[in-house]
Amino acid sequence: MVGRVICKEIIMKAVKYVIWGAGEYGKRAFNAVGKEHVEAFMDSNPQKTGSLYCSKKIIDFNHFIRDYSECLILIANKQFEECAEFLEEHNIYTYIKFQNIPNELFSYVGRNELKQYILNIIEKDLRYGIKGLSLYSLILYHWIKEIKMCVKLIFNREISGKMLELLDFYNVLYVFEDEKTDNKPDIIFLCDYVSKNQVKTLLLGHKEYCYIFDCSEKIEAYYNPQLAGLKNLYNGKRCFLVATGPSLAMKDLDLLKRNNEVCISVNGIFKAFDETKWRPDYYVVSDADFALENRKVIDSLKISYKLVSDQCVEFWRYEHDNNVIVYHHNASDCCYDFSEDISRVSYAGYTITYICMQIAVYMGFQEIYLLGVDCNYSRGSRNNHFMKEDKPDHMNHNEDKMLLAYQSAKQYADEHNIKIYNATRGGMLEVFERVDFDSLFEDEERQFI
Fold it and tell me: How many beta carbons lie within 10 A of that of residue 418, not counting itself?
């Protein structure tokens, strides 16, 4: 059964949100849905209650129940599952999670380009469906409605009755995917991430499907000619991807310098610079919080190339020397595809090391050695990196999802005759063949001695 019959003359009401999380994730969610669609923020920290965030009031859960129950809750913090369990324990099912969405919805570049690309491929007189319920599907629904096109959300019957009531309240049209009707969509947009291989399979079996989660390679605004200049620059050579795990030792960095190895490194590696003369040739950042917090340090680094993701929205609001700092378009964390053209897109895979692997392959390296990629974290520890942290690390590093990315990298490398070795001293990463770091330099070190 389709949702309530709604006259075409009725003006569509935009869904209103309460964002759960008055932090960086909350700010991204705020940018994604737009100020006019956010009624308030909700946060579990009582010290924030009553104050403003992004010009909106911060409320507590009781306030939500009392005054905002007709809003859709958008969970936008890193405790997605815990928040969802809490809501369902209180018989609240009108929520969605701020995850698995295209980064351009909240990034420095791309939102307008993505919207324009999608609206340009829409054909007059065709009926459109959007499969599933997510933030992206709701945003897309409103984009299409803006140009007066026929569109409906498509659900399976597991969706809660309370969510359907809320969608009815906002005049959102929907249909169940197993419903028999003559008024079927001509084109069905797929908004959830699936791998490129899965996309090919889906499109072969269902010609009406149109995959739009990742449109990176079709949007010209993402292309960065500075990065295109790196293609095959080191064809057939080897490099080292230096991460910041606790096993990383300064003597190893000194050894890399003595042997003039090409190195790509990340994030807080600059904390080692007071103890070694080694410097990476390429420095990569994709975490928005980290980039903004360390903006001045990143600006000051004397490194040939600094690649900062377009996820780092606030970072890019400042002026930078673009001869040194270049942006790279970074697709959603949940993407495990392996990019063959980082001048247009890189895929995050929940770890910046995965991005670095794509960069290294694009630059033509045939042998890639990992160093300091321990891939094991302890919640609440101050020793998850090579330099002891000032504060305990309570972040969920998603090690299980990292492993999926590493497995994707290995598969790509094996299929393209590229060798990725793990030269890390210890750690938990066993996806790649291990090699002894010191053995890579034995001949050179004898000469040095």
Answer: 18
First to last CA, the chain: 80
Can you tell me the distance from the alpha carbon of 221 to that of 170, in angstroms, rounded to the nearest whole number?
34
DSSP assigned state of 56:
E
- pLDDT digit string (tens) for 240-255? 999 999 999 999 999 9
Residues of the chain with pLDDT under 50: 1-11, 446-449
The SS3 of residue 185 is coil
What is the model's pLDDT at position 448?
Answer: 47
Where are any strands of DSSP class E within 274-321? 282-285, 305-309
Neighbours of 222 (CB within 10 A): 25
For the sheet containing 419-422, what is the strand order? 325-328, 305-309, 282-285, 262-266, 238-242, 367-371, 419-422, 433-434
- The CA radius of gyration of the chain, in Å to the nearest whole number, is 24
Q: What pLDDT score does 7 carry?
A: 35
pTM: 0.84
What stretches of 267-334 adopt beta strand conformation (E)? Answer: 282-285, 305-309, 325-328, 330-331
Dist CA 383 CA 248 (whole Å):
12
Q: What is the pLDDT of residue 5?
A: 34
358: number of Cβ within 10 Å: 23
User: DSSP string spanning 379-400?
Assistant: TTBS-SSSS--SS-B-----HH
Phi, psi of 96 (to 5 degrees): -135, 165
Cα 64 to Cα 79: distance, rounded to the nearest angstrom:
19
State whether the Cα torsion 109-115-118-121 is positive or negative.
negative
CB 206 within 8 A of CB 184: no
Neighbours of 110 (CB within 10 A): 21
How are beta strands 52-53 and 56-59 bridged, if at all? antiparallel
Q: Which residue has 């790279």 as its token pair?
A: 328
**Strand residue runs (E) in 43-123:** 52-53, 56-59, 72-75, 95-97
Q: What is the pLDDT of residue 164?
A: 95
CA distances from 126 to 122, 185, 187 (A): 8, 8, 7
Q: How far apart are CA 206 and CA 208, in angstroms?
A: 5
User: Do 172 and 151 contact (CB within 8 A), yes or no?
Assistant: no
